[in-house]
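A.,

Following up on our hallway conversation. Structure tokens first:
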């Protein structure tokens, strides 16, 4: 059999992606890590280049992936239990580190129970499968992450059973919930990102709760709020509890990741024991795939312990100082950003060609950044996204600002 006809068809589709500006650039390969030296943070080497790079495009906000205690925990767990589980969790693939991590992240999020997945993406898919039935209505923010959008599709939510409100538009949310008929709908799920990763702004949870409060008792099986706080948990708020802590308000169900602030791998849902058991029983993305390795689990548990310690508080304070330094530099240069205190700091360029040129110029000057162009972001919102990590030093931020000043 030949792939020639399929190859030709796929080549046309890929060419169309390129023409639309949606094609991903070739993947750069990191081949080495250079530890911090003096007043300089870590640097990275890429295949085919002798240049050393500052990563301003990493989600590892607390910079824990090279922490000696995290590495030691992963090593010890692997030597004790092996590199892989050998089975899905309900077929004796559950090891002590899996359960210990679930207990630890539930406690960190202030919930009675949690269930871990291979990623936050698969967590959202699994949660939607667990919550959806024929009398469920879904309401979401227009800028929700792809995994939330995909979750509704995989759960077969019909078009007439979902509504989208404009980003952080409380009047839009009010109109959406008021339109739901409790004679036809038993449960309503209002789902949104905690921190919106393209912009660095966050959902106004207190205001969301205020809008929804009059409707909490209208539906036979409740009105439930779900936040995917993957960019918030561990990295946002005085103690790293995420968007809930920043807003001083809570949601019903929290989805998050170990792959960002905690610097490891995996995702989780934290909620009531009943929700977590429904996930265990009904979520295909949990049931039919091997779990995280014990190394990931042990490393993530230690990373949470560090985040929840004095050392973690110091790292959070350092990040905030570097965010303030970077934002002050952007203001000094007369450039535009979106207000916020999250490690994601967007530079509003508002022009596709200029965004591409600046990303290339940053690369040529040893700085790795991400450019976001239409249709990934709306026309006119072309952006360069910077992400501040705990390993960035004052000198590093000065260097990035110096490059920005030269190429702007």
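Then the amino acids I'd put at each of the 408 positions:
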């Amino acid at each position: 059999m030949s792939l020639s006809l399929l190859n030709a068809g796929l080549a046309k589709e890929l060419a169309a992606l390129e023409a639309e500006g949606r094609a991903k650039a070739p993947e750069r390969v990191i081949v080495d890590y250079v530890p911090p030296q003096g007043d300089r943070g870590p640097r990275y080497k890429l295949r085919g280049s002798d240049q050393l790079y500052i990563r301003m495009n990493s989600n590892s906000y607390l910079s824990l992936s090279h922490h000696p205690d995290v590495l030691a925990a992963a090593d010890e767990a692997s030597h004790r239990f092996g590199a892989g589980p050998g089975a899905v969790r309900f077929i004796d693939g559950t090891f002590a580190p899996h359960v210990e991590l679930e207990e630890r992240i539930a406690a960190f999020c202030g919930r009675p129970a949690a269930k871990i997945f291979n990623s936050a993406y698969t967590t959202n898919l699994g949660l939607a499968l667990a919550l959806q039935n024929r009398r469920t209505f879904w309401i979401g923010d227009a800028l929700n992450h792809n995994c939330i959008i995909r979750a509704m599709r995989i759960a077969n939510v019909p078009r007439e059973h979902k509504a989208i409100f404009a980003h952080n538009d409380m009047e839009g949310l009010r109109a959406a919930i008021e339109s739901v008929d409790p004679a036809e709908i038993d449960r309503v799920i209002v789902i949104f990102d905690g921190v919106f990763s393209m912009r660095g702004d966050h959902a106004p949870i207190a205001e969301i709760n205020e809008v929804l409060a009059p409707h909490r008792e209208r539906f036979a099986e409740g009105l439930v709020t779900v936040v995917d706080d993957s960019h918030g948990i561990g990295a946002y708020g005085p103690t790293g509890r995420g968007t809930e802590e920043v807003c001083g308000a809570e949601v019903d169900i929290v989805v998050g990741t170990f792959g960002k602030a905690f610097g490891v791998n995996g995702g989780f849902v934290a909620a009531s024991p009943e929700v977590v058991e429904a996930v265990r029983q009904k979520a295909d993305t949990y049931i039919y795939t091997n779990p995280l390795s014990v190394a990931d689990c042990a490393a993530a548990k230690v990373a949470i312990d560090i985040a929840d310690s004095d050392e973690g508080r110091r790292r959070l304070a350092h990040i905030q100082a570097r965010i303030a330094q970077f934002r002050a530099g952007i203001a000094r240069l007369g450039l535009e950003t979106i207000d916020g205190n999250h490690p994601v700091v967007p530079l509003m360029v508002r022009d596709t060609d200029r965004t591409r040129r600046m990303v290339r110029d940053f690369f040529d000057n040893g700085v790795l950044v991400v450019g976001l162009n239409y249709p990934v972001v709306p026309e006119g919102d072309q952006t360069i996204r910077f992400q501040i990590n705990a390993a960035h030093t004052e000198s590093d931020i000065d260097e990035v600002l110096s490059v920005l000043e030269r190429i702007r």
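Residues 310-332 form the longest helix (23 residues). Curious whether your intuition agrees with the design.

B.
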